[in-house]
């Protein structure tokens, strides 16, 4: 038996050598279909957020919305049908009426983005520059409004009168500075 085992040793060595050469060759063809990125993996951007729904003048947040966005929407919903009062919402959070920046401030406070109300002028410097993914505040020295989960939160532009309201139609933002909370 021992002579037979030693005669198979060269065959085994040759078979092992061939296998060692073929494995990298097959691995190379499989890897050729996958782009090489220097070790980093490609992460596609997240899909755009689902739109909210407007029902009886109030917005229902989409299930995919972050909790803080849902809280902003819930806070804004509490103000629907409140009257427009110049300066309203600036003395204290709960007021009998709200102006533009007071209603935007109240909504943002609901999501813990503000600790005190801001007039429209200072909102031009609040948060980060540009549009956000879920929330964008548009401000200039005389007016402020927000776009939240695809709807406009504004005190103007409603056939039913003025005051904090949700609007399906977005407005022209020329002359406004766009700001957003980090990550939203």
Could you give a quick summary of the protein structure above?
It contains 4 helices and 8 strands; from the N terminus they run H-E-E-H-H-H-E-E-E-E-E-E.
Q: Give start-end ranges of low-pLDDT stretches.
A: 23-37
**Structural class determined from secondary elements:** alpha+beta
Report the total helices: 4
CATH class of the domain at 53-180: Alpha Beta
Overall average pLDDT: 82
- CATH topology tier name of the domain at 53-180: endopeptidase fold (from Nostoc punctiforme)
Tell me the total number of β-strands: 8
**CATH 4th-level superfamily of the domain at 53-180:** endopeptidase domain like (from Nostoc punctiforme)
Most strands sheet: 6 strands, antiparallel
Task: Explain the layout of strands and helices.
Blueprint: H1 2-32, E1 53-55, E2 58-60, H2 67-79, H3 100-110, H4 120-123, E3 128-129, E4 135-139, E5 144-148, E6 151-154, E7 165-167, E8 177-180
Antiparallel strand pairs: 1-2, 3-8, 4-5, 4-8, 5-6, 6-7
Helix pairs in contact: 2-3
């Amino acid at each position: 038996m021992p002579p037979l085992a030693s005669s198979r040793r060269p065959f085994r060595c040759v078979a092992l050598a061939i296998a060692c050469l073929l494995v990298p060759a097959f691995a190379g063809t499989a890897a050729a279909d996958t782009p090489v990125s220097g070790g980093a993996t490609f992460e596609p951007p997240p899909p755009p957020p689902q739109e909210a729904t407007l029902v009886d003048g109030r917005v229902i947040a989409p299930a995919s919305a972050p909790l803080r966005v849902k809280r902003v929407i819930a806070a804004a919903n509490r103000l629907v049908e409140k009257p427009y009062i110049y300066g309203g919402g600036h003395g204290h959070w709960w007021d009998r009426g709200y102006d533009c920046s007071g209603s935007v401030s109240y909504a943002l406070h609901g999501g813990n983005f503000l600790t005190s109300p801001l007039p429209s002028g200072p909102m031009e410097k609040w948060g980060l520059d540009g549009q956000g993914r879920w929330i964008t505040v548009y401000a200039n020295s005389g007016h402020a409004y927000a776009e939240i989960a695809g709807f406009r939160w504004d005190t103007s532009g409603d056939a039913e009168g003025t005051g904090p309201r949700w609007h399906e139609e977005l407005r022209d933002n020329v002359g406004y500075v766009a700001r957003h909370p980090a990550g939203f």
